[in-house]
Amino acid sequence: MSGLLLLADISGYTWFLQSVALAHEDDAFADGAVPDAYATLSDLLGGIVGRVVPPFTLSELEGDAVFAYATNLDPVPRGAAMLDCLTECYADFRRRVGMARDIWPCWCDACLRIDALELKFILHTGAYVAQEIAGKRKLVGPEVVMAHRLLKNHAPELVGHGAYALITAAAAARLDIPTEAAVSIAETYEHYRPIDAHVFPLREA
Protein backbone atom coordinates (compact mmCIF):
# COMPACT_ATOMS: atom_id res chain seq x y z
CA MET A 1 0.00 0.00 0.00
CA SER A 2 0.97 3.59 -0.45
CA GLY A 3 -0.46 6.71 1.11
CA LEU A 4 -0.05 9.43 3.71
CA LEU A 5 1.42 9.00 7.17
CA LEU A 6 0.47 11.54 9.84
CA LEU A 7 1.88 11.93 13.33
CA ALA A 8 0.55 14.47 15.82
CA ASP A 9 2.84 14.66 18.84
CA ILE A 10 2.24 16.58 22.07
CA SER A 11 5.55 18.24 22.89
CA GLY A 12 6.52 18.66 26.52
CA TYR A 13 4.07 16.20 27.99
CA THR A 14 6.61 13.83 29.53
CA TRP A 15 8.34 16.76 31.20
CA PHE A 16 4.97 18.08 32.40
CA LEU A 17 3.92 14.72 33.88
CA GLN A 18 7.26 14.34 35.63
CA SER A 19 6.97 17.83 37.13
CA VAL A 20 3.44 17.18 38.36
CA ALA A 21 4.38 13.77 39.78
CA LEU A 22 7.32 15.29 41.67
CA ALA A 23 5.26 18.18 43.02
CA HIS A 24 2.49 15.81 44.14
CA GLU A 25 4.51 12.75 45.06
CA ASP A 26 2.55 12.39 48.32
CA ASP A 27 -0.93 12.59 46.83
CA ALA A 28 -0.70 11.87 43.07
CA PHE A 29 -2.25 8.40 43.27
CA ALA A 30 -3.77 8.57 46.75
CA ASP A 31 -6.61 6.11 47.32
CA GLY A 32 -6.38 4.90 43.72
CA ALA A 33 -7.17 8.33 42.28
CA VAL A 34 -5.97 9.09 38.76
CA PRO A 35 -4.17 12.47 38.59
CA ASP A 36 -5.94 15.15 36.57
CA ALA A 37 -2.90 15.36 34.29
CA TYR A 38 -3.67 11.90 32.91
CA ALA A 39 -7.28 12.77 32.20
CA THR A 40 -6.06 15.89 30.41
CA LEU A 41 -3.79 13.81 28.18
CA SER A 42 -6.73 11.59 27.26
CA ASP A 43 -8.81 14.65 26.39
CA LEU A 44 -6.05 16.19 24.28
CA LEU A 45 -5.41 12.97 22.36
CA GLY A 46 -9.13 12.43 21.88
CA GLY A 47 -9.47 15.93 20.51
CA ILE A 48 -6.70 15.34 17.98
CA VAL A 49 -8.27 12.08 16.84
CA GLY A 50 -11.63 13.79 16.48
CA ARG A 51 -10.11 16.39 14.16
CA VAL A 52 -8.07 14.17 11.85
CA VAL A 53 -10.15 10.96 11.77
CA PRO A 54 -11.61 11.07 9.19
CA PRO A 55 -10.21 11.86 6.63
CA PHE A 56 -7.30 9.86 8.07
CA THR A 57 -7.62 6.42 9.64
CA LEU A 58 -6.31 5.96 13.16
CA SER A 59 -3.45 3.48 13.32
CA GLU A 60 -2.70 3.74 17.02
CA LEU A 61 -2.05 5.99 19.99
CA GLU A 62 1.63 6.09 20.87
CA GLY A 63 1.94 7.52 24.35
CA ASP A 64 1.51 11.24 23.76
CA ALA A 65 1.18 10.97 19.97
CA VAL A 66 -1.49 10.06 17.42
CA PHE A 67 -0.42 8.00 14.42
CA ALA A 68 -2.81 7.95 11.46
CA TYR A 69 -2.70 7.15 7.78
CA ALA A 70 -4.66 7.56 4.56
CA THR A 71 -4.55 5.04 1.74
CA ASN A 72 -7.51 6.52 -0.10
CA LEU A 73 -6.58 10.16 -0.70
CA ASP A 74 -9.94 11.22 -2.12
CA PRO A 75 -11.31 12.63 1.16
CA VAL A 76 -8.00 14.15 2.27
CA PRO A 77 -7.88 17.97 1.96
CA ARG A 78 -5.54 19.27 -0.73
CA GLY A 79 -3.52 22.41 -1.10
CA ALA A 80 -4.05 25.12 1.51
CA ALA A 81 -7.02 23.16 2.88
CA MET A 82 -4.59 20.61 4.33
CA LEU A 83 -2.81 23.38 6.21
CA ASP A 84 -6.18 24.68 7.40
CA CYS A 85 -7.02 21.21 8.71
CA LEU A 86 -3.84 21.09 10.79
CA THR A 87 -4.27 24.68 11.98
CA GLU A 88 -7.82 23.97 13.11
CA CYS A 89 -6.64 20.86 14.95
CA TYR A 90 -4.01 22.96 16.71
CA ALA A 91 -6.57 25.65 17.61
CA ASP A 92 -8.78 22.99 19.19
CA PHE A 93 -5.73 21.65 21.07
CA ARG A 94 -5.01 25.11 22.51
CA ARG A 95 -8.67 25.50 23.46
CA ARG A 96 -8.60 22.22 25.36
CA VAL A 97 -5.38 23.18 27.15
CA GLY A 98 -7.02 26.46 28.16
CA MET A 99 -10.13 24.69 29.42
CA ALA A 100 -8.04 22.25 31.46
CA ARG A 101 -6.14 25.12 33.02
CA ASP A 102 -9.38 26.95 33.89
CA ILE A 103 -10.73 23.98 35.85
CA TRP A 104 -7.36 22.81 37.17
CA PRO A 105 -7.73 22.16 40.91
CA CYS A 106 -4.12 23.04 41.67
CA TRP A 107 -2.23 26.27 41.02
CA CYS A 108 1.28 25.12 41.86
CA ASP A 109 4.11 25.95 39.47
CA ALA A 110 4.26 22.37 38.18
CA CYS A 111 0.55 22.16 37.32
CA LEU A 112 0.52 25.56 35.65
CA ARG A 113 3.16 24.33 33.23
CA ILE A 114 0.33 22.81 31.24
CA ASP A 115 0.40 26.07 29.25
CA ALA A 116 3.79 25.04 27.86
CA LEU A 117 2.38 22.01 26.04
CA GLU A 118 2.62 22.29 22.27
CA LEU A 119 1.68 20.25 19.24
CA LYS A 120 3.73 19.25 16.22
CA PHE A 121 2.66 17.41 13.10
CA ILE A 122 4.68 15.21 10.77
CA LEU A 123 3.12 14.51 7.38
CA HIS A 124 4.92 12.08 5.10
CA THR A 125 4.01 9.83 2.20
CA GLY A 126 5.27 6.50 0.95
CA ALA A 127 4.74 2.78 0.85
CA TYR A 128 3.87 0.69 3.89
CA VAL A 129 2.54 -2.74 4.79
CA ALA A 130 -0.26 -3.53 7.25
CA GLN A 131 0.55 -6.61 9.32
CA GLU A 132 -1.06 -8.42 12.24
CA ILE A 133 1.40 -8.30 15.13
CA ALA A 134 0.38 -9.67 18.54
CA GLY A 135 -3.25 -9.45 17.49
CA LYS A 136 -3.05 -5.81 16.43
CA ARG A 137 -2.88 -4.29 12.95
CA LYS A 138 0.40 -2.42 12.59
CA LEU A 139 1.86 -0.38 9.76
CA VAL A 140 5.45 -1.32 9.00
CA GLY A 141 8.06 -0.35 6.45
CA PRO A 142 10.96 2.08 5.92
CA GLU A 143 8.69 5.06 5.32
CA VAL A 144 6.83 4.41 8.58
CA VAL A 145 10.19 4.45 10.36
CA MET A 146 11.11 7.65 8.55
CA ALA A 147 7.89 9.38 9.63
CA HIS A 148 8.70 8.58 13.25
CA ARG A 149 12.33 9.62 12.95
CA LEU A 150 11.19 12.98 11.64
CA LEU A 151 9.79 13.70 15.09
CA LYS A 152 13.40 14.42 16.00
CA ASN A 153 14.33 17.28 13.70
CA HIS A 154 15.91 20.72 13.53
CA ALA A 155 12.67 22.64 12.98
CA PRO A 156 12.74 24.35 16.43
CA GLU A 157 16.11 25.86 15.55
CA LEU A 158 14.50 27.52 12.53
CA VAL A 159 11.01 28.46 13.70
CA GLY A 160 11.26 28.41 17.49
CA HIS A 161 9.76 26.02 19.98
CA GLY A 162 6.10 26.64 19.22
CA ALA A 163 3.72 24.45 17.26
CA TYR A 164 4.56 23.50 13.70
CA ALA A 165 3.78 21.13 10.87
CA LEU A 166 6.71 19.43 9.14
CA ILE A 167 5.56 18.24 5.74
CA THR A 168 8.00 16.31 3.60
CA ALA A 169 8.56 17.51 0.07
CA ALA A 170 7.04 14.28 -1.24
CA ALA A 171 3.85 14.77 0.78
CA ALA A 172 3.60 18.45 -0.18
CA ALA A 173 3.90 17.55 -3.85
CA ARG A 174 1.35 14.75 -3.57
CA LEU A 175 -1.22 17.07 -1.99
CA ASP A 176 -0.31 20.24 -3.93
CA ILE A 177 0.40 22.07 -0.68
CA PRO A 178 1.75 25.60 -1.25
CA THR A 179 5.15 26.00 0.38
CA GLU A 180 5.94 29.69 -0.19
CA ALA A 181 5.34 30.53 3.48
CA ALA A 182 7.28 27.54 4.79
CA VAL A 183 10.86 27.19 5.93
CA SER A 184 12.76 24.60 3.90
CA ILE A 185 14.73 22.00 5.80
CA ALA A 186 16.76 18.89 5.01
CA GLU A 187 17.10 16.12 7.57
CA THR A 188 19.58 13.26 7.56
CA TYR A 189 19.10 9.97 9.37
CA GLU A 190 21.24 6.84 9.48
CA HIS A 191 20.48 4.35 6.69
CA TYR A 192 18.37 6.91 4.76
CA ARG A 193 19.04 9.42 2.05
CA PRO A 194 18.64 13.06 3.13
CA ILE A 195 14.97 14.01 3.11
CA ASP A 196 13.68 17.45 2.15
CA ALA A 197 10.75 18.97 4.02
CA HIS A 198 8.87 22.18 4.65
CA VAL A 199 8.16 23.55 8.11
CA PHE A 200 5.01 25.60 8.72
CA PRO A 201 4.77 27.43 12.07
CA LEU A 202 1.23 27.07 13.43
CA ARG A 203 -0.79 29.78 15.10
CA GLU A 204 -4.24 29.62 16.61
CA ALA A 205 -6.92 30.33 14.00
Regions with little confidence, pLDDT below 50 for 5+ residues:
none
Determine the N-to-C terminus distance.
34 Å
What is the CATH class designation? Answer: Alpha Beta
Mean pLDDT: 90
Radius of gyration: 18 Å
**What's the count of strands?**
9
Roughly what fraction of the amino acids lie in strands? 25-35%
CATH topology annotation: Alpha-Beta Plaits
Which key features would you list for this structure?
single chain; 205 residues; alpha+beta; Alpha-Beta Plaits; seven-stranded mixed beta sheet; two-stranded antiparallel sheet; 9 strands
Description:
It contains six helices and nine strands, in the order E-H-H-E-E-H-E-E-E-H-H-E-H-E-E. By secondary structure, the chain is α+β, with helices and mostly antiparallel strands. It has a single domain (2-201), classed as 2-Layer Sandwich (Alpha-Beta Plaits). The strands form two sheets. Strands 2-3-1-4-7-9-8 form a seven-stranded mixed beta sheet, sandwiched between helices. A two-stranded antiparallel sheet has the order 5-6. Helix 2 (36-52) runs antiparallel to helix 3 (80-103). It is globular. It starts with a strand and ends with a strand. The mean pLDDT is 90.
Précis, in short:
By secondary structure, the protein is α+β, with helices and mostly antiparallel strands. It is 35% helix and 28% strand. It contains six helices and nine strands.
